[in-house]
Design brief:
Length: 274
């Protein structure tokens, strides 16, 4: 489940919708107005006891209203809540970015010149950087021990989320919590409190490993529809379009012809490389 922005052209009172998808197939199954706890509860309460019994897990980001809706619905006590690893890593990136601003951009013009242009480089995974970029990162981290520690924690959390089992992930998370427990550093402490609060939902990753890549594919379809539309008044129509794009990816001329039958402009063909 995820919230989606309707885009700046829409004229409805709500700016977001909630989309619930089948993790096994990637097919969107329900769409609702808004992104509140009550929004998701409308779908959960429409399920029968037998349908609720078949649900094994809910994959979501760290949006609290969704977590509350599942946690407070009777008949779903057996279902696990699993947070998307992308959003967990994003928390560490926000912590590191705040530390970067404190070290370079709030300490005077000289350090500001050193830190300019480092944001995306520091957020990039270490193994995806070149030797030249690694040298730049090491030079930047040498200016501040807390920033260096924040970078290490970010990389360590990425490794922990790929732990082979729950026990290994638990040991890694405990180590990260020890390193972020200091109260005098707000970015590190904020990460500490969030990881500690969502402990069970993070560890559930090691047990279930939901195919969240299918959700990213749905996000791409969503962006395509919203970008090419001038707003949607009929959410059921929008849901049918999403289902069609999931079942019929536009990868060929035949797929484009089927997409044309829906009455919207097909994507421009990609130019071949010279």
């Amino acid at each position: 489940m995820d919230e989606k922005w309707l885009g700046r052209r829409h004229v409805l009172d709500h700016k977001f919708v909630t989309v619930v998808s089948n993790l096994e197939t990637g097919e969107p199954v329900w769409i609702g107005k808004g992104r509140s706890e009550n929004t998701l509860k409308r779908w959960l309460q429409s399920l029968s006891a037998e349908q609720k019994a078949t649900l094994e897990l809910f994959a979501m980001d760290m949006h609290r209203p969704y977590w509350n809706a599942v946690d407070n619905t009777r008949g779903l006590e057996h279902a696990a809540i699993v947070h998307d690893p992308f959003h967990i890593t994003k928390l560490a990136g926000q912590m590191l970015d705040e530390l970067r601003r404190e070290v370079f951009f709030r300490a005077g013009p000289e350090l500001r010149a050193v830190g300019r242009g480092l944001r995306w480089l520091l957020l990039r995974a270490w193994e995806r950087t070149t030797d030249e970029q690694k040298a730049t990162i090491e030079a930047a981290l040498a200016h501040n021990r807390t920033l260096a520690r924040g970078y290490q924690i970010k990389e360590e959390l990425r490794e922990v989320l790929h732990a082979p089992d729950r026990a290994a992930m638990e040991v890694g998370l405990q180590r990260i919590l020890r390193r972020t427990a200091r109260r005098d550093n707000k970015p590190l402490r904020r990460l500490h409190d969030t990881l500690n609060e969502r402990w069970n939902e993070i560890l559930a990753l090691a047990e279930h490993r939901p195919p969240t890549g299918r959700l990213e594919a749905l996000n791409n379809n969503w962006e395509t529809l919203v970008r090419r539309a001038r707003g949607y008044r009929d959410h059921n129509y929008l849901l049918r379009k999403l289902r069609f794009m999931t079942a019929n990816p536009i990868r060929s001329q035949d797929g484009i012809q089927r997409f044309l039958a829906l009455g919207i402009t097909p994507p421009m063909p990609r130019r071949q490389a010279a």
